[in-house]
Structures are given as structure tokens and as C-alpha cells.
């Protein structure tokens, strides 16, 4: 999660919503990193999780991320939770809860929907206070402007 937080700080410094993600191979090696970059790229799919999963898939040479762990500083939205399911991510660990858009238990629970073909293990609340603090600071600064 510390490396995901470093990615989130990169997003913060670039004026992006500070969310960061990493993908770990089954061995524990980091094979993908990402942070929000929607503003820079004008890409609505430029969420940290998507960026990190794309990099991981490229590193593996395969779209299936079976046995991999996706670590993200904020509870994934419906798009990112769905992408994690589609990529067959083995484990999903996240920090701060997203009560307004979270799809891993808060508002929806995409990853545990028994109608889908894959359900990753979920670990919630990893360094949650630190992850939330970065988001709170970002949005407080934006309101001041």
C-alpha cells in the first residue's frame, strides 16, 4: 500500500484526484503501477486501477491476472471493480472507503456478486486513514480556490 500511496501522491502533485494502485504478481513482485491520469490524458478510463492492470497485463503478456493482487488507495468504482473481475485478479486490497461510488461493498458489491464468473478475495481498510487523508487534503485545497 505504501507504493500505491506514492502513486497517489504523484497524482496529487499533477492535479489529479490522488488515487494510486499497484499490481503484485503471485511472487509478490510489483508488475504494474498506476495513478489517476484522466485530466492529463482526457481518458475517462484513466483510473489508477485500470492503468496498473494494463501495465501488469503487458508485463505478463496476458490479460488474465490470476493469482495477482491489486492494491489501491481508494475502494474501486464500478468500472474498476468490474475490470478486476474480468481480469481474474486473485486478491483486491484497498485503503479508504468510497461511500459515494465504491463498488467493493460500500455502494455496490460488484466483486462479490455471485452472478459473475469470478470473485477475488477482498482486504479492506489497509492504511485507510492515510489513504483518506490524502484525498481530504486534495479536495480541501480545491474548495479554497
UniProtKB/TrEMBL annotation:
<feature type="binding site">
    <location>
        <position position="47"/>
    </location>
    <ligand>
        <name>Zn(2+)</name>
    </ligand>
</feature>
<feature type="domain" description="CMP/dCMP-type deaminase">
    <location>
        <begin position="1"/>
        <end position="107"/>
    </location>
</feature>
<keyword id="KW-0479">Metal-binding</keyword>
<comment type="subunit">
    <text>Homodimer.</text>
</comment>
<comment type="function">
    <text>Catalyzes the deamination of adenosine to inosine at the wobble position 34 of tRNA(Arg2).</text>
</comment>
<dbReference type="InterPro" id="IPR028883">
    <property type="entry name" value="tRNA_aden_deaminase"/>
</dbReference>
<feature type="active site" description="Proton donor">
    <location>
        <position position="49"/>
    </location>
</feature>
<keyword id="KW-0378">Hydrolase</keyword>
<keyword id="KW-0862">Zinc</keyword>
<protein>
    <recommendedName>
        <fullName>tRNA-specific adenosine deaminase</fullName>
        <ecNumber>3.5.4.33</ecNumber>
    </recommendedName>
</protein>
<dbReference type="InterPro" id="IPR058535">
    <property type="entry name" value="MafB19-deam"/>
</dbReference>
<dbReference type="InterPro" id="IPR016193">
    <property type="entry name" value="Cytidine_deaminase-like"/>
</dbReference>
<feature type="binding site">
    <location>
        <position position="77"/>
    </location>
    <ligand>
        <name>Zn(2+)</name>
    </ligand>
</feature>
<feature type="binding site">
    <location>
        <position position="80"/>
    </location>
    <ligand>
        <name>Zn(2+)</name>
    </ligand>
</feature>
<comment type="similarity">
    <text>Belongs to the cytidine and deoxycytidylate deaminase family.</text>
</comment>
<keyword id="KW-0819">tRNA processing</keyword>
<dbReference type="Pfam" id="PF14437">
    <property type="entry name" value="MafB19-deam"/>
</dbReference>
<dbReference type="InterPro" id="IPR002125">
    <property type="entry name" value="CMP_dCMP_dom"/>
</dbReference>
Amino acid at each position: 500500500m505504501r507504493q500505491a500511496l506514492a502513486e497517489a501522491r504523484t497524482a496529487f502533485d499533477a492535479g489529479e484526484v490522488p488515487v494510486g494502485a499497484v499490481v503484485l504478481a503471485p511472487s509478490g513482485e510489483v508488475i504494474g503501477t498506476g495513478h489517476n491520469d484522466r485530466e492529463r490524458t482526457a481518458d475517462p478510463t484513466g483510473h489508477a486501477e485500470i492503468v496498473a492492470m494494463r501495465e501488469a497485463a503487458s508485463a505478463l503478456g496476458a490479460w488474465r491476472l490470476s493469482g495477482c493482487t491489486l492494491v489501491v488507495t481508494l475502494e474501486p468504482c464500478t468500472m474498476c471493480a468490474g475490470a478486476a473481475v474480468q481480469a481474474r485478479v486473485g486478491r483486491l486490497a484497498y485503503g479508504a472507503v468510497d461511500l459515494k461510488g465504491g463498488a467493493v461493498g460500500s455502494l455496490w458489491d460488484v466483486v462479490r456478486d455471485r452472478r459473475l464468473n469470478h470473485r477475488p478475495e477482498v482486504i479492506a481498510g489497509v492504511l485507510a486513514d492515510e489513504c483518506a487523508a490524502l484525498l481530504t487534503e486534495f479536495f480541501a485545497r480545491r474548495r479554497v480556490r
